[in-house]
Amino acid sequence: MRTPPGLLLAPVLALVLGACGSPSPSNTPDAGTDPDGRTPDGATGCPAGLAGAPCVLALHDRTVASCEATAIAELRTELDARKDLGPLWAAGRALFRTDGITHVAGEFNGWSTTQLGSSAVCGSDLFVAVGAVPTGLWPYKLFDGQTWSLDPHDPAFAYDDFTGNPDGENSVINTPDSGRGHIVRLARACSTALANCREVTAYYPPGYTAPANGAQTYPVLFMHDGQNLWDDHDCCFGHTGWELNVALDAEIAAGRVAPVIVIGAASSAARNDEYGLSPTKLATFLQFQVMELQPQALAQVRWDHGKLAVAGSSLGGLVSMHLALTYPQTYGAAASLSGAFWPGQDTNTALRDLLPTFGKQPLSIYLDHGGNVAQNSDGAADSVEVRQLMIGLGWQRSDSPSCTPGSNALCYYFEPGATHDELAWKARTWRFLRFLFPAQ
Predict the structure, then answer these.
(1) Which helix (H) or strand (E) covers residue 358, if one does?
(2) What pLDDT digit, counting tens, does each position of 123-141 carry?
(3) pTM
(4) From CA 228, how far away is CA 197, in angstroms rounded?
(5) In CATH, which superfamily holds the domain spanning 182-436?
(6) In the chain, pLDDT over 70 holds for what percent of residues?
(7) By CB distance 3.0 to 4.6 Å, which of 4, 189, 278, 311 could disulfide with 273?
(8) Are 219 and 306 in contact (CB under 8 A)?
(9) Eight-class DSSP state of 277
(10) Alpha-carbon torsion 419, 425, 426, 429, what sign?
(11) Distance from first CA to last CA of the chain, Å, rounded?
């Protein structure tokens, strides 16, 4: 996309969610609010969250027509309740709240720097821009006459590989009828025990913000290495990201995958230890994931309160298996792509050694790899060994794409010669999505 130049948890030891580094940016929803940023008491006249967009737009029209003090106050209350939810859209019009006089330029208006400007509502200190925005998913930015900037009150964003965009991102307005999902930033997750913080992003499925779907809830998939999951063409050693959001849009539209929320937590500088190389760090990370990261993230989305799924690749696949097997009361499924099952092999503490201790758990498991079994490239031999051990414990193997989820299901796939990188995992993404979240 081109921008203008310049541009139900296990009762384990709780960890403290502490402040770490800089505070969360102002455009991340407060974890203390209800999903979609609804105020705890719901004390506004319009339907809560983005579902109230038509009502708020109508209130805006009445307010600018009358300029009555009570109407301005009511509009302010409604907008304050949605301050960090991004633009409000209904029936071909959008309302952008800004912090001052600026212009909204995006693909929907040809990146015009003059067409859609914000102004003070009836001379007050409430600044909004209201204009026509057709159906679609539209990148945009704010332009104050000199500087292009992301919308600080919009958690939705899209990657941009245009070299003239120094941010590498644009803000996004995704109309509820676009047929596409979008990515949002959630609040950062910080751990005192791990002494670090990590960015958390999420994919919202198509129609998530539609007023008619305001009460709809969704299953949730947590994924590791969250910074590599989306359609960022500049990441991952030149392999691009998994483009999971692109795959989900296509699979959901085709009726092969059910709408699902995907939450990705970025890995830290201590990734390798946290994901399995250090037994001590791994144990601490598992507790942080279950007791802190997940509850905070789930409070910001419309989760259906069913069991979670967890997935990852390489060491991310290993830690996903550890999580699901350790906390089967929390997870109903796990997916490991090219799992790195070798840590601990010299001390008999590798996952393969622990499987008999975990025993058969009621989990849907997806297991795949590429490479060559004879050479153990891409962990092929290790994955086959784990597969056979799980079959011996009671899981029932089927091969992708002919897999059906269930408490005994083990879905397996081998892509001969596939490499150990995001490009290979992107190509196999649809397989575990169809298995774990089949459309009804």
Answers:
(1) helix 351-358
(2) 999 999 999 999 999 999 9
(3) 0.89
(4) 17
(5) Alpha/Beta hydrolase fold, catalytic domain (3.40.50.1820)
(6) 90
(7) 278
(8) yes
(9) I
(10) positive
(11) 34
